[in-house]
Amino acid sequence: MPDQTEQQRRQTRQAAIVIAVAFLGWMGVSFLGGQLGLPVRYAFLADFAALAALAWALIVLFRVWRQRQQGE
């Protein structure tokens, strides 16, 4: 089982990185959009991209959690 445990750790780490990058990117685009006066559609695009990244991370974390529950 060490292979599976290492894979779960890798997936969890990857999901955490995606969450951090999504939030930082979302905040950055929101800030720059306001400073540069970009159209609102770019803010919506950034919002939807962040939501998609967070949904993906949630699905990955849920799958890792389910695998750990089944492994016990």
From TrEMBL:
The protein's UniProt keywords, in alphabetical order, are:
Membrane, Transmembrane, Transmembrane helix
Cross-referenced InterPro entries: Uncharacterised_Ynq1
Q: Which domain of life is it from?
A: Bacteria
| Residues that span the membrane, as ranges | 15-36, 42-65
What's the name of the protein?
A: DUF5337 domain-containing protein
